[in-house]
Amino acid sequence: MPVRVGILGATGAVGQRFIQLLDDHPTFELAAVTASESSAGKTYRDAAKWRVNTPIPDDVASMTVVETDPSSIPDDVDLLFSSLPSGVAAEVEPAFLEAGYVVSSNSSNDRMADDVPLTIPEINPGHLDLIEVQRDARGWDGALVKNPNCSTITMVPTLAALDQFGLESVRVSTLQAVSGAGYSGVTSMEIIDNAIPHIGGEEAKMETESRKLLGTFDGTEVDLHGMEVAASCNRIPTLDGHLENVFAETAADVSPEEAAAAMREYPGVDLPSSPDQLIHVFEAFGRPQPRMDRGRGDGMQISAGGLQATDAGLKYNCLAHNTIRGAAGASLLNGELLVEEGWV
Amino acid sequence: MPVRVGILGATGAVGQRFIQLLDDHPTFELAAVTASESSAGKTYRDAAKWRVNTPIPDDVASMTVVETDPSSIPDDVDLLFSSLPSGVAAEVEPAFLEAGYVVSSNSSNDRMADDVPLTIPEINPGHLDLIEVQRDARGWDGALVKNPNCSTITMVPTLAALDQFGLESVRVSTLQAVSGAGYSGVTSMEIIDNAIPHIGGEEAKMETESRKLLGTFDGTEVDLHGMEVAASCNRIPTLDGHLENVFAETAADVSPEEAAAAMREYPGVDLPSSPDQLIHVFEAFGRPQPRMDRGRGDGMQISAGGLQATDAGLKYNCLAHNTIRGAAGASLLNGELLVEEGWV
Amino acid sequence: MPVRVGILGATGAVGQRFIQLLDDHPTFELAAVTASESSAGKTYRDAAKWRVNTPIPDDVASMTVVETDPSSIPDDVDLLFSSLPSGVAAEVEPAFLEAGYVVSSNSSNDRMADDVPLTIPEINPGHLDLIEVQRDARGWDGALVKNPNCSTITMVPTLAALDQFGLESVRVSTLQAVSGAGYSGVTSMEIIDNAIPHIGGEEAKMETESRKLLGTFDGTEVDLHGMEVAASCNRIPTLDGHLENVFAETAADVSPEEAAAAMREYPGVDLPSSPDQLIHVFEAFGRPQPRMDRGRGDGMQISAGGLQATDAGLKYNCLAHNTIRGAAGASLLNGELLVEEGWV
Amino acid sequence: MPVRVGILGATGAVGQRFIQLLDDHPTFELAAVTASESSAGKTYRDAAKWRVNTPIPDDVASMTVVETDPSSIPDDVDLLFSSLPSGVAAEVEPAFLEAGYVVSSNSSNDRMADDVPLTIPEINPGHLDLIEVQRDARGWDGALVKNPNCSTITMVPTLAALDQFGLESVRVSTLQAVSGAGYSGVTSMEIIDNAIPHIGGEEAKMETESRKLLGTFDGTEVDLHGMEVAASCNRIPTLDGHLENVFAETAADVSPEEAAAAMREYPGVDLPSSPDQLIHVFEAFGRPQPRMDRGRGDGMQISAGGLQATDAGLKYNCLAHNTIRGAAGASLLNGELLVEEGWV
Asked: Residue C280 — φ and ψ, nearest 5°?
């Protein structure tokens, strides 16, 4: 029996990716699409300026968009995906939790809140149990689960693979695609023949979220991982796919070959949208590249390459599709895990 | 009285920049342009596929291109600028030195040779005295001086400014423009909507040249600076201007404000092509950007910005015009220093 | 004695170009900068998000921005340049005319109005006399003069040169730079690895404005030129410079060589901002190109090339810098003509 | 029973597309891949620098590349696809014909030869009978069939649909993707922030091939269509997908609506690689766009849009994927037609 799901903020760029990824999903059935008041009452086709390069699924095109309010959601919907702007999400997500909904949210608010699980199914599925703490603390029946920022999720699987060697310090520099800023986030005048350093807020997200994801959950709270993380985040003229240069130092010595093996062998999960192998490691230098490799594993696989020893540790590159694995796909996978673990 | 100069490899991309920069130069007068055998005998206009966006100076256009051989150079030429491919340079530069010419070379061969000064006039002018060692060792009257690679020269002035605090470790990630690979070095199919990690050879250059530039010359040899340097070099779809993210650790604590002050106050030199201030430091985050800032100081100024403290040190961004400060302009400035110091 | 001028809408993209072009102008002195109510009272430096790649002139940076209202303009200002959004211009330009100001406007409203001169100084300076008709009709002391749209002005000088052969039909296809849509007009997600046909409103402007510019003024009204014009306008991922493919049919036979000669010999004007030669014609095919040629004549020269005979006439390419010759520079040149002809 | 096929020039850009398109083909089975002497004997994986963004099919990766010579082709291969450079093709294609092979060739040589069918299955399948003339003339058992140039094939289906109204004159301006010049054909320095008019040779191909494709075959020769065609061809910074602006004049009046209907109703063919509908016509202006629409019908559908009346006829835009419908896919479809019609 399919799980009926809804999308909060369904007309935006990430909302459109949700719709694309939910099309022909084996267990989820889309039953509600919400947007702002001005779009409510319109068909989805009329409300959304569709920009994904596959057509709108016919059944979604004719759905009526409803307001982003618990009272607008059909009773048989069990799981909501949220791609609301973080300011809006901070206001309306509590109402959905109070009304008992399980919300898998891509919005950046509350990611570092003590009682909100920030999860990647392959990395820290056990953090989902923080939902118990959350329910106790807030007195609600619903549940709020977050996935990390697109720049964080690109790097963390490779760090998780290396943590067996004792991660002490990470420096990371990102080359991020324009889609990460939303459809209208970066103007063409800003970025053609250019690059923009210091993407606002992005560096702090990478520096904190990564330590929560790799932190230890003792049943009550998540103890942040002790590694030092410093990030520099840059926007470049690329459509999709964040490429990152990582410099990592570990307590134990680790060769590039050992590091590559650890990445390749890092276990995946068995969920409908998870890739067969979590991390693909290129032998050849010069890879991964955004346009060539963002589509691996239908946009859900992490790529790594260029592993080399430095005087103090390792350097390597990693890459993920920022609007699939880094946004809608990340929330979707969390949703699949929530079902698998019986939270929905 | 002007110094008469020549350009070895005058028809290539860097050669064209030399011609542009020498036009109306206050002390240098272009008297010879060399190229490969197939171009010798043609006018420069016919031999060069001119791609710089200012017209060929009329007097240069009508000059006859000669072979890259000491016998082809007029007797009254005192100084040669070299932008030969490094393989060719390795073969022919010795012949020019033996013939007594002073050569300021942008070619990458011999940059790390024990008896070859690798200099940036504002950073290590004293290394020029290595010419004495070179002449003793090789028994030649000429002199060979090198400037560093474009990615190295972008970062080193900022490191020089920080070295008063005791540089211990540097990690740097680059976002490099396509012009750094030469006119045909990067195809459009490779780079549109893409980025390419691990530019061949570039990382090793940054890791070694920077330590020589900041090394100590004791009259006999250059002792490399002891800092650890690890570089990851990426090509992005930008025409000119290398942007770099630096993570630096120093023995002494240094705040972003102190670091910015040290950069701003780092002394320049008084040569015709040097900028008024060596390093411009932006207050606002989000700068420097390649297209906006590569032209500062006629392409000879270094820009920096985004200075922030990390757990272990500092992070910041820097930028330079890779084909001016990073190539032809660097050799030109070395040539001006050679004249100023009496070597020509 | 300098003419004191003001800029209406000085903080936008075209306004910034006006300021850049007026810096060190031989006869104009900038005395007033206006913007919307929210900017009034601020210094220009604080009010404008400066994006031109030369610094804000110091004297302008410290000027106080005033509201776009005649009462805000100092009494000794004689000439105003307008780069207001056309909706705003349609509302406020009449107030300035009524108050007696001469306004040289780049805004698109009223370009085809019967009593408004639409002029390019080199093409139809005589149309300025329509000001008499305008003053009679409207009972005002001021004067409103318009320059054409950037896509129109790129093509019309070449057509003017060919009209001696009797222009009958023109088909033109444009490859337009993103700056033509304003700083935020085209998002990076829309245009990277893409092109957009049918720029809204642009095709109609080219089809009508060109016929007015080449029309005949009999002292009372402008009789539109009888040629048929059909335009297809496309946006491409280029920063500045509109490239256009023209197919022209003339009553008399004309060879590519005769057409090239007619373009080269087309007379210029002697105004401070006009180029030495109005149209530069390339011999070699493959030119003009936007990035290589938009800067010719400080952005005020038209380039043409690729002239060939077709079965029915001629085909060729032309190019102009869309935000200089196609916007701020066009208004500025009209202002210089207004002074020269005694209207200011 | 599958038809066994080979690819001449299998390692190049178009060769790679052939391999991608033949993977899982319902009736063709790849049995031979040829390349230049230096690649012969290697596995395909080692010989080809694979750049398509799907992996090399495993069975092809391990195939041994053979020399481009009839003696290297297994006896049971019946049909060859050629993506050889035209100079090479002109030399070696005759040898394959003499040896009795049927060759469906994308190479540009001989497209306008009197006895060579130039075909698009949906447009002029009857021209295939020119093979009889070819065999008579050359005395060979084989057959050579060509598909048109990528810029031609983008436009011709729309013209075919309009020819019922009596095409008299066509002017067309193209915005062509860089992949049309081959992987290394356009450097990044040439095209970033730029456009290049007058692609060498392309304009003549459009002007002649279109008239042959729409010409009349009387059993002996093809009488070229009488319409006048003038083309201007431009390269823009787009990866794949040629966008074209067409201005067409017809003997009979035709409204945009009638033209759109004629395009939509233009019949397709029933071959494995043909799209369900040959031409998709957009209602909304602003489409088709290369990145959004090149993938329609797996890259085999033609898109059109922006139909409007001009004083003298119609203007509209059309688009096709230049390396699929415009190259490898075009040859493949011709191969499917050759089988269907019994020539193989």
From this structure: -95, 125
Contact D193, C239 (CB under 8 A): yes
Contacts of residue D38, Cβ cutoff 8 Å, sequence gap at least 6: none
Q: Which helix (H) or strand (E) holds A57?
A: none
According to DSSP, the residues that pair with B170 across neighbouring strands are B229, B248
Provide the angle, in degrees to the nearest 10, between the axes of the packed helices C329-340 and C13-22. 50
For residue D281, the cross-strand partners are: D304
Tokens of C29: 């002195």
Mean pLDDT of chain C: 96
H or E segment and range at residue D216: strand D216-217
Q: CB–CB of C256/C314 below 8 Å?
A: yes
Compute the distance between CA of residue A278 and CA of residue A262 in angstroms, rounded to an integer.
11
Q: Which of B32, B11, B18, B42 is nearest to B76 (CA)?
A: B32
The helix (H) or strand (E) run that includes residue D341 is none
Which residue in chain D has the smallest CA separation from B180?
D189
Length of chain D: 344
Half-sphere exposure of D113 (CA within 13 A, CB side): 19
Query: What pLDDT sits at residue C1?
Result: 81
Q: How far apart are CA B55 and CA C282, in angstroms?
A: 13
Residue A219 and residue A160 in contact, taking contact as beta carbons nearer than 8 Å: no
The closest alpha carbon to D147, from D343, D335, D341, D340, belongs to D335
- Phi then psi for B90, rounded to 5 degrees? -60, -30
Catalytic residue, from A127, A225, A233, A242: name it: A242
In chain C, what residues touch A238 (CB-CB under 8 Å)? Answer: 192
The answer to whether A291 contacts B228, with C-beta atoms less than 8 Å apart, is no
Task: Name beta bridge partners: D114.
Answer: none
pLDDT at A200: 83
A220 φ, ψ to 5°? Answer: -120, -45
How far apart CA A104 and CA A328 sit, in angstroms, is: 10
- How far apart (Å, rounded) are the C-alpha atoms in residues B220 and B110? 17
Amino acid at B117: P
pLDDT tens-digit readout, D91-149: 999 999 999 999 999 999 999 999 999 999 999 999 999 999 999 999 989 999 999 99
- CB-CB: which of C188, C193, C238 is closest to A187? C188
Which residue of B lies nearest to C55 if distances are taken between CA atoms? B296
Tokens representing A44?
A: 């989805």
Dist. CA C314–CA C306, nearest whole Å: 10
Does the pLDDT at position C300 exceed 90?
yes
What is the distance between the alpha carbons of residues D215 and B283, in angstroms, rounded to a whole number?
A: 68
Q: Please name the helix (run of DSSP H) or strand (run of DSSP E) that holds residue A68, with its range, or none.
A: none
Lookup: tokens for B263: 């950069």
| B113: DSSP letter | -
Which of residues 145 through 204 in chain C touch D, CB cutoff 8 A? 169, 171, 173, 175, 192-198, 200
End-to-end CA distance of chain D: 13
According to DSSP, residue A54 is labeled: S
Which strands make up the sheet holding D279-281, listed edge to edge?
D196-197, D228-235, D167-176, D242-250, D314-320, D302-309, D279-281
What pLDDT sits at residue B149?
Answer: 98
Amino acid at B108: S
CA distance to A40, A116, A199, C24, C216, per residue, from A87 (Å)? 19, 17, 18, 47, 59
Nearest CB partner across the interface for B198, out of A292, A306, A311: A306
DSSP class of residue A293 equals H
Q: The whole model's pTM is what?
A: 0.96
Tokens for B334, please give them.
Answer: 């070395």
Taken in order of first residue, the domains within chain B and their CATH numbers are 3-148+327-340 (3.40.50.720), 150-321 (3.30.360.10)
Residue B272 CB-density burial (10 A; 0-12 exposed, 13-18 middle, 19+ buried): middle
A291 touches chain D (CB under 8 A): yes
